[in-house]
Design goal:
Layout: H1 12-15, E1 22-24, H2 28-52, H3 63-86, H4 92-101, H5 105-116, H6 129-157, H7 167-190, H8 198-204, E2 206-208, H9 209-215
Antiparallel strand pairs: 1-2
Length: 223
């Protein structure tokens, strides 16, 4: 049985090292929102590509089924989001939203560093600037997908709307923006050695303190 990336068994050196100390990075509310988005987003992307790409024409023969799954995933996301926000009695999701929405000078420098890869990496908080930017883009895409999806549905069911919008084009463009974002995200959490430990935080809620101090030195891990 193989280990999940980032959770490989200890090396000889690690066996003689002190036991790692873990700190909480994500609360259950945050992890629930992440996995709600991940599952529904991937389901919508997969069914959308089945409906869109000619290579899947035979598989997509029952278009009503695939459309139902596609629409069901979209409804599940927004309904789940409402439930999570309504049940967030501790305000953790609201605090996270404010944290992600805050860009400081170090974040700007980090984005420049991420492109040039020269000099020392600017210090980051619990979320680095790339994660903040990715979160903003993904949620923006969800709004674009939903709005254009509603218009596409109306075009199919209401003759007065049919042919009067560019909803299909907007939906297609948003899809091709989303694909590289998802591929890059999966690479960072599953393959890249220096960042894949972050997957543990989204599954179990905790990460190693030494990893947190190395990658997110501005994050107060005692909170």
């Amino acid at each position: 049985m193989t280990s999940m990336p980032g959770w490989a068994g200890p090396t000889a050196t690690e066996r003689h090292s002190p036991r790692p100390v873990y700190v909480r990075r994500f609360w259950p509310e945050e992890r629930s929102l992440h996995w709600l988005l991940a599952v529904t987003f991937l389901l919508m992307l997969a069914t959308g590509l089945v409906l869109y790409l000619p290579a899947f024409a035979q598989l997509a023969a029952n278009r009503r089924l695939w459309k139902s799954i596609h629409l069901g995933a979209a409804i599940a996301f927004w309904a789940g989001l409402v439930v999570l926000l309504a049940s967030d009695t501790h305000g953790r999701l609201r605090r996270t939203a404010r944290e992600v929405d805050r860009f400081d000078d170090d974040d700007v420098r980090w984005l420049r560093w991420a492109v040039a890869r020269r000099g020392l990496e600017p210090p980051q908080g619990r979320f680095n600037a790339g994660q903040k930017l990715n979160t903003a883009i993904v949620f923006g895409l969800m709004v674009v997908f939903s709005a254009s999806g509603v218009l596409m549905y109306l075009q199919e069911t209401d003759a007065a709307v049919r042919g009067k919008t560019s909803a299909i084009l907007v939906h297609d463009i948003a899809t091709w923006v989303a694909v590289p974002l998802i591929v890059g995200h999966l690479y960072l959490v599953l393959v890249n050695p220096s960042t894949r430990h972050s997957l543990r935080g989204m599954v179990l809620g905790t990460v190693r303190r030494d990893w947190a101090r190395r990658h997110h030195p501005k994050w107060d891990t005692t909170e």
